[in-house]
Amino acid sequence: MSLVVIGSGPGGYVAAIKAAQLGQSVTIIEDTEVGGTCLNRGCIPTKALIASTSLLSKARELDKYGIDLNGTVSPNLEKIMARKDKIVSTQVKGIRGLFKSWGIKLLEGKGRLLEGKTVEVLLNDGSSISIEADNIIIATGSSPAHIPAFPVDGINVLTSDHALVLTEIPKSMVIVGAGVIGCEWAFIFRELGALVTVVEMLPRALATEDTEVSALIAREMKKKKIKLMTETSVSKVVVESDHIVTKLLNGPDVVAEKMLVSIGRAFNSTGLGLEEVGVKTGKSGEILVDEQMRTNIKGVYAVGDVTGGMLLAHTASAEGIIAARNICGQEVKMDYSCIPAAIFTSPEIASVGLRDFQVHEMGIKTRTGMFQYRALGKAHAIGEIVGFFKIIADEETDRVLGAHVVGSEASVVIHEAAVAIRNGLTSKDLARTIHAHPTLSEGLMEAAEDVHGEAIHLPKK
Amino acid sequence: MNPEGIKYHKEHTWARIEGSMATVGITDFAQEALGDIVYIELPELGASVTAGESMSDIESAKATSPVISPVTGTVKEVNSALEDEPEMINPDPYGKGWIVVVEITGQGDLLDAAAYDAFLKEESQ
Ligand SMILES: Cc1cc2nc3c(=O)[nH]c(=O)nc-3n(C[C@H](O)[C@H](O)[C@H](O)COP(=O)(O)OP(=O)(O)OC[C@H]3O[C@@H](n4cnc5c(N)ncnc54)[C@H](O)[C@@H]3O)c2cc1C
Q: Is A305 in the pocket of ligand 1 (CB under 6 A)?
């Protein structure tokens, strides 16, 4: 059986490898670089930059740790970017190596569906070929959304893609959109020394997170002197030769050297021949799929960002595996109820399961356990006392429904809560699991204990 | 113990009222209980504050807690030096550690120094 995968981001390349492992003959088509957005313009390069900026922030506090610095600490953007580029190219080679080892054929060019399960590939060298396959997976991902009001030129008005290749640190930056990408960039630029203003239409930053998470991150922005303006929207952008004036519907003008637009993602579903073949798409151009990642056309599957939804790399990969397994005759469905997610602001944020406002909307009766980082010995030892652990459990069954961690290493700490939710464990199960001391994970255990008012390191309520 | 001539709120804040203006801060008891102060979220100039309600958040090595305003009115001045050196509050809560100046339209149920001292004694028993 043969499979063609269009797009080699975390959705496509994982699907290709899984299908090859299960015995399919796989061809993958990629028009830019293997690894997709995640590896080339998303998760990995931003986290490489954040590694530099977090170290910079620590270096500025060396004195606090009892270390004398004989000299100054300052970022060198050229070297920071070079380090990031090297990390990306090493990972790219890694994926190419995996394709080779699993016998996956990589075609570098643009793929398009034709009738009868044929994919036409316009190769990067200008030639084109057609390949037929028993099944097709579309994993073409997403790109920064463009809205005419924001005159993106890659020089003054940027998207995240442009920010990743800046050669100079801007003195000031206005970021439009306080979603995950906007917030991560806000901390990166601030740490590098730019004056940062974030403008958000909604009442809070990171509006899809628990409200207490948004409140804490808003305060951390304030501490770092990142100006967050919520419930305002941009009415006009005036690009002058050396600065940009952002006019707001309700608020004073914001003047900054550069603007970063992070207002959402556009689904890469055009030019793919979807209409010609009859693959159904939704309002925003996302490809419609069922729980088995099947489109309405037999043998055509779609996974990852192009299907809308969560826009997370690991969701794309999980969907890729589901599609590959279904293609190979295993009947499996995607389960979205327990997908952890991390946001690499400073401090980190991680969450899994239900948020406070969802619990409220759904009318579920719950108990909440809360524990502060500053109550942990380990947090003091490492000098990272900001943040909290929060567990939401069902009042009746005590099953863990949601967990939210803001603080150092939140992205690592969250996973035991994911295991708990996935397996229907209770807050007591978490509380009674012995946690090594001294660790940040103890905070999750104490939050679980606090669900029943039994945290050891909290005063009596 | 606690200085005379200023008024105290039971939520461990103080107000030095001069005419229609009040300088506001946290008490020595509060700074002692909080321990090393690492951050204070200052109210904005022009913000209105209400006696008995939170006007800002203060973070220490031990806890994050609200600062309860002893007076009602409009913030006319903020001690912006606290932005970079919040730890100034610890050694001098009634002096350099002042938080805001409020143009007052009202005040909470405030105690004088002797009554606040007595209140603290009572609380600790
Ligand atoms: C700045 C930023 C930071 C992010 N950080 C995180 C994070 O920390 N964690 C996280 O989970 N997610 C993060 N994401 C989201 C994550 O990158 C995406 O969810 C993920 O890449 C989606 O994978 P995908 O395979 O669906 O698509 P993509 O990764 O977008 O890959 C699709 C690939 O298909 C190619 N393609 C498109 N059309 C065609 C065609 N016709 N023919 C051939 N090839 C084609 C594209 O060029 C691309 O290489 C981040 C995104 C951004 C922008």
A: yes
**CATH 3.50.50.60 occupies which residues in chain A?**
2-144+266-327, 157-263
Residue type, A74: S
Q: Chain B interface, mutation test: which of A374, A384, A458, most B Cβ atoms within 10 Å?
A: A374
Chain B residues whose CB is inside 8 A of the A386 CB are: 59
Architecture of domain A341-450: 2-Layer Sandwich (3.30)
**Under a CB-based contact definition with an 8 Å cutoff, are residues A405 and A390 in contact?**
yes
- Chain A interface includes B41 (CB < 8 A): yes
Nearest CA to ligand 1 atom 27: A141
Angle of CA points A391, A458, A386, to nearest 5°:
65
Are A389 and A416 a contacting pair, CB within 8 Å? no
For residue A373, give how far its alpha carbon lies from the nearest alpha carbon of chain B (Å): 9
Q: How confident is the model at residue B107 (pLDDT cuts 50, 70, 90)?
A: confident
- By C-alpha distance, which of A143, A392, A403 is closest to A263? A143
User: CATH number of A2-144+266-327: 3.40.190.10, 1.10.10.10, 3.40.50.970, 3.50.50.60?
Assistant: 3.50.50.60
Task: Decide if A232 contacts A197 (C-beta within 8 A).
Answer: no
- What is the Å distance from ligand 1's center to A181 Cα? 13
Domains assigned to chain B: 7-118 (2.40.50.100)
ipTM: 0.79
Give the integer Cα–Cα distance in Å for A331 and A322.
9
Which residues in chain B are closer than 8 Å to A385, comparing Cβ atoms? 38, 61
Position A458 scores a pLDDT of 86
pLDDT number for residue B1: 67
Mean pLDDT per 10-residue section of chain A, whose length is 461 residues = 98 98 98 98 98 97 96 97 98 98 98 93 96 97 94 96 98 98 98 98 97 96 95 95 93 96 96 96 97 97 96 98 98 96 98 97 97 96 97 98 98 98 98 98 98 89 71
| Chain B residue at shortest CA distance from A372 | B63
A280 CA to centre of ligand 1 in angstroms: 21
Residues of chain B with Cβ-Cβ distance to A228 below 8 Å are none
pTM of the model: 0.94
For domain A157-263, is the CATH number 3.50.50.60?
A: yes
- CATH 3.30.390.30 residue ranges of chain A are 341-450
Is ligand 1 within 6 A of the CB of residue A159?
no
Query: What is the Cβ-side half-sphere exposure of residue B76, based on CA atoms within 13 angstroms?
Result: 12
Q: Phi, psi (5° rounding) for residue A101?
A: -65, -30
